[in-house]
Fold this protein.
Amino acid sequence: MPTQIEARFAHESIRPRIASRVLNSKEELLSGRYAPEIRALLEERGVLVFPEIHFTDEEQAAFTRTLGTLAKERDGEDVFLVTLDDKKNKTGSEYLKGSLYWHIDGTMNPVPILASLLASKKLATWGGNTGFSNTYAAWNDLPEDRKVELEGLRVLHAAWASLFYYDPEPALEKLKFMRMAGEQELPLVWKHRSGRKSLVLGATAQHVVGVDAGRSAEILVGLREWATRDDFTYSHEWKVGDLVMWDNTGTMHRAEPYDPACARMLHRTKLQGEEPFV
C-alpha cells in the first residue's frame, strides 16, 4: 500500500521573540486550508516569512483573501508597487521616504489595516532589508512600574511629524500639504480585544498629550529605543520570490537604507482592519 502523508501546517521560528518561517507549498497556501493557523501564528509572532514562494500578483491577492478582506489601494487596484521608480510608483517616490523610519501604517485612520503582505520582485543593488519590531513583546518586557506610568497616556499622531525625519527644513507648502492628511490622538498602550497590549509608536508620534515637550520627547524616543532593541526585532534580507506578512496592529516596520537609484521592487497587498484604535 502507498504511504499516506498527513498534511500539516509547517512552520519554524526565526528569532525567539519575533518572526516565523512558513514552509507549506504554494498550492496548500492558496487552498485556504491553513488560514486559521496562519492568522493565529501571525498574531503570536508578528511577522511571517514565506520563502521564495513566487506568487504572481493574482495569487498574492487570492492568498490575501483567504485570510480576511483584501483592502484595495487608493486607485482601486489590489496590488501596490513599492518602488522609487516614479514611472511605476503612481504616488511618487516622495511617498516612500517616510518608510525608512519606524512606523505603524494607518495611524491617521480610526481602524488601521490588519496586515500587509510584501512580495519581492527585484532586489536592491545594496541594502534594502525590511526591519520589524514586535511591540507586543516590547510592552510585555517593560518593568511593571514603567507600565503603570505609561498606561493611560495618549499621543498625538500626525503624518506631518514624519516629514521632519527626512526633510528637517521643509518648505512651508510641503508642510501644509502633509498637514492635510490630518492628526489623530491615540493611546500609547493599545489594549486589544484579545486582552493583549502593544505600544503605538513610530515616526508619526508627534507628542504625548498633556506632557511638556522635553519630557514627551524622552518618553517617545526612549520607548522607540526600547522597542527596537535586538531582542524584539528582525531584519529580513530579501530574496526574489519571498513573501513577508506582518501584523500591523502589533509591530512597527521600516525599510532599511538602499541605493535610491536602483529598481528595487516589492508588490504589496493589505488585509482590511478589524479592530479600531481605542
Remarks:
- The chain has a mean pLDDT of 94.
